[in-house]
Amino acid sequence: MSTPAARIADLLEDVPTASNPPARFPAPAPDPSPRTDGPTLNISVIWGDIARIAADLHVTGHYQSVVPAAAELALDRAISVDPRRIITEHTKLGWIEAQLGEVTYFPCKEGPVRCAAVVGMGPMGTLTERRAVQMYASYRWTWTCCGNSWTG
């Protein structure tokens, strides 16, 4: 577990401090040319009701200790059996820690939502571009390792 000082240093990103020396964050490497020998992940970003779009996997972000709202709440309603909201309950019980990049899956059987995933975004207000890249990389690694094994 990180100390509060380490968390603050992480938020500073490129500002040099004792716990955040200039060499800590090297310049990002240029993007290599696209590879064709691995799995493909097609992503669609849609504005509207997430639960009405048919897909193998629906993904939303989730901040630590924040109950679902907006797209995450719509997804929660789509996968839950009334009146219980499974993502909301898991959040309130502390079962979804929402550490940066932590992925929690919720399989479904009926409707356009076949499987739902919430990806941890860390504490609210701490998601920077660098941390978003880390979050995406973690999610992509998890998805690649699992393939489509969680869908019916």
Secondary structure: helix percent: 25-40%
Order of helices and strands: HEHHEEH
Biggest beta-sheet profile? 3 strands, mixed
Number of strands: 3
How many angstroms does the end-to-end distance come to? 36 Å
Strand content: 5-15%
Give the strand order of the largest sheet, numbering strands 1, 2, ... along the chain.
Answer: 1-3-2
Instruction: Calculate Rg over CA atoms.
Output: 17 Å
Per DSSP, the total helix count is 4
Low-pLDDT segments: none
Content-based structural category: alpha+beta
Overall 3D geometry? globular
Average pLDDT taken over every residue = 76
Q: Key features?
A:
152 residues, 3 strands, globular, 4 helices, three-stranded mixed sheet, 11% strand, alpha+beta
Write the layout of secondary structure elements.
Elements lengths: L3 H9 L45 E5 L7 H10 L6 H7 L10 E5 L7 E6 L8 H18 L6
Parallel strand pairs: 1-3
Antiparallel strand pairs: 2-3
Describe the structure.
This protein has 152 residues and is an alpha+beta fold. The protein has helices at residues 4-12, 70-79, 86-92, 129-146; strands at residues 58-62, 103-107, 115-120. A hairpin with a 7-residue loop joins β2 (103-107) and β3 (115-120). The longest helix has 18 residues, at 129-146. It is globular and about 50 Å long. The model has no long low-confidence stretch (mean pLDDT 76).
